[in-house]
Fold this protein.
Amino acid sequence: MALTKVTYKNANPRGGGDNRLNSIPAKAKHVNDVVDRLNDGNYKRTFNYESIITATKAVTAADSGTVYGFNKADGIVVTLPTPAAGLQFTFLVETTFTTAGRIRTATTDGTDGFLGSITIYDTGANGAAGDRFNCQPAASNDFIDLGAIEQGWLTGGYITLLGLNATTYFVEGVLMGDGTLETVFEDA
């Protein structure tokens, strides 16, 4: 949606004739500057989307801001780049897994890791609908594993990762599972 700038033609005249241009409030210049910035895209939120349909995907720092859809039921392993402040990736569970879906850090020696939490909601087929389980990572965890229905591999969940520094991703997410819910954070 483009915004309209204040001009001579749409100014609210407080006088007549050529004084209409002088009647534009002093703040109009500021308003026009804001309109310019909004219209030029500086404040538009855009992102790239990629559907993952292969068994492996190596994400790079240049992919920061991308939203990925998990669309391979029989397993996906995503390898993240080394964490860095400001990197951001979002993963959507668009297809229910039948085998593990994993997100792993660049190194699997415990030097890269996660901070934050993921909540898994029970959909109710094999457990009590509405039950939820909140998972927090341990310092040594370097995998997020959607390896079972109890770990949230059902369609409808998401995981967002935000790089905090050179060793840590902040993670938040909501996943859909069933049965006795389990943590998604694991060691290699």
Observations:
- The first strand starts at residue 49 and ends at 52.
- The chain has a mean pLDDT of 82.
- The CA atoms of residues 3 and 180 lie 52 Å apart.
